[in-house]
Request: fold
Amino acid sequence: MNKKYLKSIYIIGLYLFTFFVTSCTDDLNTVPLDKDIQIEISSDEDFKQLMAKCYANLILGGQTGSDRDISRLDVNFSSYLRLLFNMQELTTDEAICAWNDGNLPDLHDMDWNAQNEFITAIYSRINLGVSYCNKLIQQIGDNPKYTGYLLEARVLRALSYWHMLDMFGTAPFVTEADPIGSFFFPEQASSEDLFEYLETELKAIENELPEPGANQYGRADRGLAWMLLAKLYLNAEVYIGQEKYSECISYCNKFTGNSFYSLEPVYKNLFLADNHLRRNEIIFPVCSDGKHTQGYGGMSFLIHAGIGGTMKGSDYGVSGGWGGNRTTKALVNKFSDPSGLTDSRASFHSDGQTLEIDDVFAFSQGYPVVKYINITSAGQAGSDAEYVDTDFPLFRYADVLLMYAECVLRGGSGGDAATALIYVNQIRERAYGDASGNINSSELTLEWLLDERARELHWEGHRRTDLVRYGKLTGGDYLWPWKGNTKEGSSTNAKFNVFPIPSSDINSNPNLVQNEGY
Reply:
């Protein structure tokens, strides 16, 4: 399936689901589906549309531009991708927003609570994704005709549960075997429960999924299962208090030993309107299309929100900017090089901007990040100036190389320091255009790798997870502007390493226990 066709069925899937799915009620029931979802489906087209909705949940906020899937936030604010960016980036040194919408500023201030509507929305959106996948798996049953769809639904469900584990540390746990409806209260799964489930589930299906690159673009293949397992093992010490670095290396080796994957020669091509051509590096994208995935919650948000001040929207392939997201000097300074070398990954707009941020709500303070652009590698604007064609690279091969290096440094077996250095310098050579930015073995340290991950992966939804793993998200060991709601940054409570279960769900499900400190 080519990119355009996959994106077209996103829209088809929306119409089918107007008969199956209603918006979450105000109390945000953890299974936000009504009795109408019990309607049976049987045709090939029905199953295709149901599969499409499982993917569409990652980018679109509802059935139409005004009909939202979940309550409390509008259809644009409640997009999975937009919420994921807010949770993973606004809570860190990599992003800060000039908007004062509701409790959005609390994310960067790191003083949120269980009533925060953005945290409630990502929690509900993740659970909704699980429900969509459960419904498809339930409908397929043991019908061999749709085995491919079933496997994709299982790995997409695992993606949702991994996000729940990573952000909340716990989840109301449901599968296709559980009843659907407002009178069913899911049991709570602990971090250990979720880890065991994800490890078992992903290993059960990894070899049944299509080989890397064998499935149609934008759909899950074996690489997504490998990546989720690698991420699970990389962060195992956070999740379950056990080191699994050797296991992470073993899954990184699956990527490096597969001829399909390689680094894209030009870094910026990974973030342009035709980045669907970079399958060699983009392991799994969240697809966006100016004609078929129209909404302000996905990549259209990410590009428009980072444009303002002296910036011209046409320079980035869009109609204009919203004056929202910038970054702090903590990220900008990571690209400082005393030798004067230029790192091509540093994509900041400084004209008319100050590096220092005295007023969080002044867009002119802080540097906008111009990483994502709605223009192709040939210089052509995307198909629409409002809704962009640029896909979001949820997982990339470069991340695999950096994970391998980190796990070697952390004592994992199955890899070696010499290979880790080679991998890191491959990334550096792309960034600098030659070997001038290469490092030696003594420079390859865990602290250096954390900074390199920021240089390579900023604004790709990894930073909060990385800082938690390094013990630097909370506390006072690492400060950045406006952490803890002070200009220079201040220490924060360790409870903010995970988000709270929304109080609305605590109140509606007697089986749930709130995360410590909330």
Remarks:
- DSSP finds 17 helices and six strands in the chain.
- The mean pLDDT is 92.
- The radius of gyration is 22 Å.
